[in-house]
Amino acid sequence: MVAKYAAIQHLRWVSGAAFLMLGACGGDSGGSMNPTSQPLMATFDSIQVNIFTPICSGCHSGANPAANLALDAMHSYNDLINVPSTEDPSVVRVKPGSPMQSFLVLHMEKEGD
Q: What is the rounded CA–CA span in Å between residue 13 and residue 57?
């Protein structure tokens, strides 16, 4: 069944991307989440609280974050949205509303992380 509405398609994509990201960035093998986790929703704040902060910010924060990408709550939005990728500067890390033109999605599909 194909989703009729763009909002539903977007929610499906975000949910799928969030699921893919759970295994990225070296999350713990137990699969446990931060005890303060909230239900995952298709919002940047929800992805920050449930994925970036507990799973990714261990490597992607501090003075020299991996790939010069800080994913702590203070920096993630400004380091992701419409920012050229360090691996391929012709593609932005996250292009809002265009997952297939976002380096984060392309990288996850290509590298499997």
A: 22
Secondary structure of residue 30 in the 3-state scheme: coil
Q: Maximum distance among all alpha carbons in the chain?
A: 46
Identify whether the C-beta of residue 109 lies closer than 8 Å to the C-beta of residue 24: no
* Residue 102: partners with Cβ closer than 8 Å, 6 or more residues away: 91, 92, 93, 94, 95
Contact (CB, 8 A) for 20 and 47: no
What tokens appear for 61 in the block? 């924060």
Nearest to 71 by CA among 48, 103, 92, 105: 48
Tokens read off for 71: 């994913």
Per-residue pLDDT of the chain (113 residues; tens, 9 = 90+): 444 444 444 445 554 554 444 444 444 434 444 445 578 888 899 999 998 999 999 999 999 999 999 999 999 999 999 999 999 999 999 999 999 999 988 987 887 76
